[in-house]
Amino acid sequence: MRIAIGSDHRGVAARMRLIGLLERMGHTVVDCGSHGQDAVDYPDIAADVAGRVSHGTVDRGILLCCTGVGMAIAANKLPGVRAATCHDGVTAEMSRRHNDLNVLCLSAEMIGPEVQDKLIDTWLTTPFEGGRHARRVAKIASLEGHCGQ
Fold first, then answer.
1. pLDDT tens digits along 3-39
2. Residue 147, domain member (yes or no)
3. Average pLDDT over residues 85-100
4. Is 148 among the domain residues?
5. Would you give the DSSP letter of residue 10?
6. Which of 71, 56, 91 has the alpha carbon at shortest distance from 7?
7. What is the pLDDT of residue 145?
8. Which listed residue (98, 105, 146, 147) is catalytic?
9. 65 catalytic, yes or no?
10. What is the domain-level CATH number for residue 127?
11. Catalytic: which of 9, 27, 65, 86?
């Protein structure tokens, strides 16, 4: 699988560690930064990763910031992106089974490396169930661009 990964300045160390994990798992990784400790604006990183998912140049994306919440909000602005912050095995599994989540957002500081690794493994190996969930995901997609209409 081709996976884009990005983080703000608070997630650099976690992102670098996770790149190694993903490569050991056999995935092709596109590193979207950031590459230092200087403060960056997380929406810029989210736009890069989510844009690649939206355009289909990668299969999935992973984003990290302090909580993962800001990244999820920004990533969901791009067409076709379904991003959410997952913090335990249940949210990671159900995000795939029922929502076909294609961008996983993680906290770089509020969950430890072992939990991050488990969430990524669960998220990458859990299939989308389709069926009634496919109908719901299609309804979510139809909301894009409606601006409250």
1. 999 999 999 999 999 999 999 999 999 999 999 889 9
2. no
3. 98
4. no
5. G
6. 71
7. 73
8. 98
9. yes
10. 3.40.1400.10
11. 65
